[in-house]
């Protein structure tokens, strides 16, 4: 028995020395041009598949049949993923085709994954595969539109894809072209939005606020895996140009067609509760009125705070929830919203979202005061 243990120990030492010699000598090629050995490819694929399956357990999948959610995912995919994976009807770029492992053609590959698994892959990436993680870990809500697009991708044609992600401006000015290239797939050329209620209306928004928001995205101070890659290489001059371009666009004459969550019969009461809270605040909870900072009509109010009138209920709700969870980030004034959002109940958030998404103001009306109402 002792002899066998001794022989086994000698074998292990010899194997370790052989491995060290191979490692130090550099004899094993690491070139991508030769690809993986079949056994290496199988091991990596099997290990990745089992890991994703294990770690995606318990992920709650939201409704992915919301209007335009796949369009937002397609626009995000076009900006971040097409360069390696290609797109519906669009070939994989030759540089990506030379990677090892080669990025898969997703129209076929996605069909082997569940939605929760796709979410896990998109959010966390895959080691040893060149698949990066989402640009920020705080925004799970941004990953789901990409999952919705990936789920639907096999049914998309090239024309379907191009209709969503490409916008050709009739205005050939430098600012309009930049807006078409960087912003229009989601926000539209007029800023009014093309990709559903998750995307804010930029038309007529304050220049100072738009500039501050883009700088915060660029500098990683406002968390977004969608917007940070868009803004990453924008200098201050381009940011100012985009802000001035969208601020000059006319706001919608009929803002707020958002469908309310829950019982539709609560619509009127929610609107009135939101109106009172926006104009008067909640003295019992020491919540100030919203219009103190977010004026209902320009040019009143702080120019570096956003106008909320006409933004979708979904967007306003989401931003307040992100403030509560400290998952939004923002410019230098963002921290002012944390203690306010913390005090808001779910019903109050819903009421504010309802009010601001549905209130309609006559441009000739004076800005309302925040005096208590009867």
UniProtKB/TrEMBL annotation:
SUPFAM superfamilies linked to this entry: Cytochrome c
UniProt keyword annotation of Secreted present: no
Keyword vocabulary terms for this entry: Electron transport, Heme, Iron, Metal-binding, Transport
UniProt-annotated stretches for the region Disordered: 248-268
Keyword Iron: yes
TM spans (from-to): none
All copies of domain Cytochrome c, residue ranges: 68-154, 170-250, 276-360
Pfam families tied to this protein: Cytochrome_CBB3 (PF13442)
GO molecular function, one term: electron transfer activity
Top-level taxon of the source organism: Bacteria
Protein name: C-type cytochrome
């Amino acid at each position: 028995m002792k002899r066998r243990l001794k022989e086994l120990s000698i074998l292990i030492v010899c194997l370790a020395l052989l491995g060290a010699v191979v490692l130090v000598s550099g004899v094993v090629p690491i070139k991508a041009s030769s690809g993986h050995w079949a056994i290496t490819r199988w091991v990596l694929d099997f290990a990745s598949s089992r890991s994703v399956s294990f770690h995606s357990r318990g992920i709650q999948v939201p409704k992915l049949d919301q209007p335009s959610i796949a369009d937002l995912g397609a626009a995000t995919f076009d900006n971040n993923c097409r360069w390696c994976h290609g797109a519906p009807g669009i070939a994989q770029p030759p540089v990506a085709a030379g990677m090892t492992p080669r990025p898969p053609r997703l129209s076929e590959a996605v069909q082997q994954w569940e939605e929760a698994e796709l979410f896990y892959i998109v959010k966390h990436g895959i080691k040893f595969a060149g698949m990066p993680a989402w640009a920020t870990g705080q925004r799970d809500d941004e990953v789901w539109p990409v999952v919705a697009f990936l789920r639907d991708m096999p049914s998309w044609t090239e024309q379907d894809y191009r209709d969503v992600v490409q916008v050709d401006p009739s205005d050939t000015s430098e600012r309009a072209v930049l807006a078409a290239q960087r912003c229009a797939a989601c926000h539209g050329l007029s800023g009014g939005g093309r990709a559903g209620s998750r995307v804010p209306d930029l038309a007529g928004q304050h220049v100072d606020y738009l500039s501050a928001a883009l700088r915060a995205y660029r500098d990683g101070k406002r968390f977004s895996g969608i917007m940070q890659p868009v803004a990453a290489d924008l200098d201050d001059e381009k940011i100012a140009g985009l802000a001035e371009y969208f601020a000059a666009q006319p706001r919608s004459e009929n803002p707020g067609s958002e469908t309310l969550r829950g019982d539709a019969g609560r619509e009127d009461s929610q609107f009135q509760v939101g109106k009172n809270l926006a104009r008067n605040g909640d003295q019992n909870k020491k919540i100030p009125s919203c219009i103190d900072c977010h004026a209902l009509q320009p040019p009143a109010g702080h120019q570096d705070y956003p106008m909320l009138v006409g933004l979708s209920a979904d967007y306003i709700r989401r931003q307040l929830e992100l403030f509560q969870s400290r998952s939004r980030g923002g410019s230098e004034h963002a921290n002012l919203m944390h203690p306010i959002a913390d005090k808001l109940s779910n019903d109050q958030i819903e009421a504010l979202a309802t009010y601001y998404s549905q209130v309609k103001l006559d441009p000739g009306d004076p800005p309302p005061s925040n005096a208590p109402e009867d």
